[in-house]
Amino acid sequence: MVIVAPSILSADFTRLQEEITAVADAGAEWLHIDVMDGHFVPNITIGPVVVENIRKKTTLFLDCHLMIQHPEKYVDAFLKAGADLITIHKEANADPVPILRHIKEGGGKAGISINPETSFEEISMLLPEVDLVLIMSVHPGFSGQRFIPEMVPKLKQAYEAIQRTHKKIYLQIDGGINNQNARLVKQNGADVLVAASFIFHSKDYRTAIRQLKEA
Ligand code: DX5
Ligand code: ZN
What we know:
globular; alpha/beta; 35% helix; TIM Barrel
């Protein structure tokens, strides 16, 4: 069974605690937190202060997706805030290996992500260092965008490379995930599905999450 990670980017931030409780009660195991700095991506979202407050209110696994430049400057703050997993981007102009090791030394799980225009080969050598690979299926920055189907072969390529490691590495897909494409991404190896608008803009979170899990 896949893990569903609702992204709070499409939640009602004025009622964040209620929203988090609602997705937890509806069957989500992880909570995906999109961190944006206005440099790596055009948008600005939230930082460690919000993660720290969320940590006090939920036992959900906190999956922090750092779409920021210089992630090395911020991983300690996110670990201290209670992040369970920190994913950094290959394109973030930093050497990922020491950052990934630092995250793990700090007690977190470490993930690496690539944007749609980056090939899997750019990160294949990092598999021994990571607990998760995140394939972006939209250009990062905003929720509510359309899934880019050309990312499916890359997902499959990542899946096959992960299989060859004989190590547990989560394969996450993020961007435009809904009940129409969940089956396709699962068939191609994804085991953690991120969804913001499909879940938080639905009338019934339980149904939305079940549709992703059972697709
Ligand atoms: C995009 C973020 C995604 C986003 C997904 O930059 O990384 O996590 O919130 O939103 P949807 O599911 O609406 O495409
Ligand atoms: Zn994300």
